[in-house]
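Working notes for the structural subgroup meeting. M.R. asked for a predicted model of this chain before we commit to crystallization trials. I am recording the input and output together here so anyone reviewing the notebook later can reproduce the run.

Input as submitted:
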Amino acid sequence: MAGEAVLEAIAAERQEARGWLKRLDAAEAAIKGRSLAAPPKPIAGPPPRQKRKGKGATTSPAEALARQAKVHRFIAEQGGLVAPKDIRAATGLSENTFRTAASRLVEAGKLRREGDRQFTRYESIKSPTGDAEESPTAPPPSAPPQGTLVGRVLATIQSCEFATVDELADLLDEDPALIESQAGSLIREEEIRMERRNGRVGYVLSGAGV
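Returned structure, recorded in token form:
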């Protein structure tokens, strides 16, 4: 009798287990069905990149030289070493614009740079001439050169009388390698030639100084 009772209990457990398995299979099928029916959520992509300023938003040679004159004049008025943050505050220039103007003035021998990073200071080593138009290489005020890139390169060199690759790239808002390529075409056409001035290699019109 005891053996029969054990067998009956085993059969009952097996029956209950089959019921559980059926319910588990049904639940699994329902979950899989909903997963397949639901549309996949879109994956967030990277944030949109900021567009670089348009090619039409170039800086004319006159504007660049006017900024340099403003920086040079303020430093000369202080009569000693001046911190970049003080110069930017007085002239209203952004950090990148000021850095470009200061670099041009150092290359031209008008400013002396001392120190590095937060200890950088600038000092005038030449008296400012006044307005940018009074500088020997300053062009008359004009709108940014338009047209093809090679034409704009030629017009800018004519306006500045002398300009390096980096200066042309900054004034025309173009890649220096592209500027160098266009200048090479103008050299082959004998429109311009390379010349060294104060240790800087740049471009002048072919007939200039001849």
